[in-house]
Amino acid sequence: MEAYIPRPHGHSALRRGRSSRSGQRYLVTTVTRGRIPLFGDWEIGVIAARAITDPRPWASSALLAWVLMPDHWHGLVELGDGRGLSETIRMLKANVARQVRVERPGLSGVWASGYHDRALRTEESTVDVARYIVLNPVRAGLVRRVGDYSLWDAAWV
Predict the structure, then answer these.
(1) Which pLDDT belongs to residue 62?
(2) Which domains does the chain possess?
(3) Sequence-separated (6 or more) residues with CB below 8 Å from residue 131
(4) Model pLDDT, residue 12
């Protein structure tokens, strides 16, 4: 009789066999809990943006581009030494949640569990991925021009 070995499920199963590599660039997306448009509230969005750009979660990694949409966040991250992608994103989400809960203490949760990531292949243009990220508010119909939306940044601007 074979011994039962529990297998990861859900987000854990997606991470099985994956590893983070120093110097690798990743497109990362994470959503709010219940896809609630929490960051559509200007004050909450600004608080979250400050927490996103706080250097503590990034350690030796670099946040190359990001946009905070009402119900999700996209980021282009280049991993540094010492901390994997999962730990980096966990620290980012915790930092944002902590700061947002200072403003809204009754809020039970900010982020949904997990996140989606895609490692950029060497032939992909990092700048094209950054453009994709910062153009999200335009594609979503929130603004007509990128410059009309303020909850984003890119290393090239």
Answers:
(1) 95
(2) 11-154 (3.30.70.1290)
(3) none
(4) 46
